[in-house]
């Protein structure tokens, strides 16, 4: 399978992983909309909201709360947006949830610096 997210799960492509368990993985987006932009994916390949197993979806959403809180506390972001695209607007055809921190003023950090702040 030629899925970039499956390759990240399998360790074939490095990532800035901030959470992992048996079912899901969360890592920083390397082309973020904002510092701390995080992607949460199921480890098992599934296309979108119509195909993801309900147990996996519930677990992913439950952990999204914890991950969003962690990212926002570590980066002092007063808000965040959750986005999950489907169909033709879905750039990578593997279910993924975006957590995009929101800041009151322009905040610039590269992905490596963000990773260090979140994981310390």
Provide a descriptive summary of the structure in words:
With 120 residues, the protein is an alpha+beta fold. The chain contains three helices and five strands, in the order H-E-E-E-H-E-E-H. It has a five-stranded antiparallel β-sheet. A hairpin with a 3-residue loop joins strand 1 and strand 2. The chain is globular and about 40 Å long.
Helix content: 25-40%
SS class: alpha+beta
Q: How do the strands line up in the largest sheet?
A: 1-2-3-5-4
Determine Rg (CA atoms, Å): 14 Å
Write a concise keyword list for the protein shown above.
5 strands; alpha+beta; single chain; 120 residues; 3 helices
Blueprint of the fold:
Elements: H1 4-9, E1 17-20, E2 24-28, E3 38-42, H2 54-75, E4 79-83, E5 97-102, H3 111-119
Antiparallel strand pairs: 1-2, 2-3, 3-5, 4-5
What's this, in brief?
Helices cover 31% and strands 21% of the residues. It is an alpha+beta fold and 120 residues long. The longest helix has 22 residues, at 54-75.
